[in-house]
């Protein structure tokens, strides 16, 4: 067999594997399911790192990412950021992620998030929940070096429901 032919075959396999792995991670991060490690998600508990975020991979192959972040906006201003380091999640399994909480105004963020906890638990609405949005973002490299972000936006109520979903496969 020709030596050049073998080199071309090996190089092609490496290139296809790298591109395939990158495309898979971009697709798979969109399929990950988010939950919490506890009974009921509460924004205020997440601020104090009492709630742990859980990512579930329902797919048949592992998924990898470099960073996962959750950003809380109120009236289009960033109120809080939950930052988690990247990891690999094996097929049909879940992983608990430790989050780091960041905010410029801790007291203001705590006040807002506590009000939303009470509102979503069925108490009196004091602050319009339509003014709060949540963005989740996965960062994964394409071809190992080109940064790629996969972001989703939620209303505050939809995000609350996603994390408190009782039928989730991530429990």
Show unreliable segments: none
Written as H for each helix and E for each strand, in order along the chain, the element string is HEHEEEEEHEEH
Could you tell me the radius of gyration in angstroms? 20 Å
* Overall 3D form: elongated
Biggest sheet details: 5 strands, antiparallel
Q: Total helix count? A: 4
What's the mean pLDDT score?
80
Share of helix, binned:
25-40%
User: What amount of the residues lies in strands?
Assistant: 35-45%
Total E-strand runs: 8
End-to-end CA span: 53 Å
- Class based on secondary structure composition and strand pairing: alpha+beta
Widest β-sheet, arrangement of strands: 6-4-3-7-8
Pick out its properties.
171 residues, 8 strands
Polypeptide structure, described:
By secondary structure, the chain is of the alpha+beta class. It is built from four helices and eight strands; from the N terminus they run αβαβββββαββα. Strands 6-4-3-7-8 form a five-stranded antiparallel β-sheet. The termini are far apart. The mean pLDDT is 80.
Topology:
Blueprint: H1 3-31, E1 33-36, H2 43-47, E2 53-57, E3 63-74, E4 77-89, E5 93-97, E6 100-102, H3 106-120, E7 132-142, E8 146-155, H4 156-163
């Amino acid at each position: 067999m020709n030596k050049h032919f073998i080199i071309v075959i090996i190089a092609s396999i490496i290139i296809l594997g790298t591109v395939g792995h990158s495309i898979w991670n971009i697709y798979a991060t969109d399929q990950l399911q988010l939950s919490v490690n506890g009974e009921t998600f509460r924004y205020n508990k997440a601020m104090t790192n009492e709630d742990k975020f859980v990512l579930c991979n329902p797919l048949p192959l592992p998924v990898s990412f470099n960073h996962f972040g959750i950003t809380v906006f109120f009236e289009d201003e960033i109120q809080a950021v939950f930052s988690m380091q990247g990891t690999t999640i094996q097929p049909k399994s879940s992983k608990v992620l430790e989050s780091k909480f960041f905010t410029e105004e801790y007291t203001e963020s705590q006040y807002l998030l506590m009000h939303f906890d009470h509102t979503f638990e069925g108490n009196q609405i004091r602050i319009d929940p339509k003014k709060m949005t949540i963005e989740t973002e996965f960062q994964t490299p394409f071809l190992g070096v080109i940064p790629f972000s996969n972001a989703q936006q939620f209303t505050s109520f939809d995000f609350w429901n996603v994390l408190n979903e009782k039928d989730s496969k991530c429990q």
